[in-house]
Amino acid sequence: MKKYFVLFCLFALLLSNCKDKKEDNGKLNIVTTTSMITDLVKNIGGDSINIQGLMGSGVDPHLYKASEGDVSKLVNADIIFYNGLHLEGKLVEVFEKMGSATKTPIALADAIDKNTLIGSDYFASNYDPHVWFDINYFKQFAEKVSSVLSEKNPENASIYESNKIKYLEELDKLQVEIISKIETLSTEKRILVTAHDAFNYFGKAYGFEVVGLQGLSTATEAGVQDVQKLATFIIEKQIKAIFVESSVPKRTIEALQAAVKSKGHDVEIGGTLYSDALGNAGTLEGTYIGMFDYNVNTIVNALK
Ligand SMILES: [Zn+2]
To answer: How far is the CA of 26 from the centre of ligand 1 (A)?
Structure first.
């Protein structure tokens, strides 16, 4: 009798593709895309979830393609969180194919009122997807994560709620700190020139004019004319520094620096900003809060 029971279990396991629940201690298995979202979900889920982030530090979400290993992680996940608004341009198709009633991937940007977003023709979504650079939008991501986790695992709802409240307080504190740092920079110096337009929401929220050399997505290269035009702009506005990004090749910003030099002027490379990915795991910049603080320090110190 016991033998038949084992056989039956094996058959059921194969059929349902279910995993040994003891192995994962009954915890929710969560898959996330960008490192910003991974960090956020870890903060809200704490020890009660297993989490696998697909994109590590330095990974460009616009160009990221799912590997075979990723597909099996996605198939086995209880919940999938991603940014949406076509940030993960090459994953959209994978998500659409796997969408079922029980496991629809959750686009966190859907939590935000579309009327408040910055429009863009570059993306199929018609919106600029780099919303996490406005801390208030990231707080809305946190609300959404907490409510989805609670819905999936009501037993732990009070844990998710208290983790969320604690994290929202940390985000508020971050916002107060970065605003006071930015206020040490005179308004005419608040011009941010980077490789691609990841910082439009940052600029709108915290009072910077933002100029990206490459357009909103890294999938399009900057042309020679764009470089020359921007070099003239930098000289006219007497901009002291321009910035490279951790997830975008340096060469476009170096070409811009060279174009400024060819016109008889100098512009520094003010440092590397984290745009579409956090720093290495285990470092301060490997967290959303540490990354934001690092970026603001780098920008303010270089433009002063
Ligand atoms: Zn981007």
So the answer is: 36
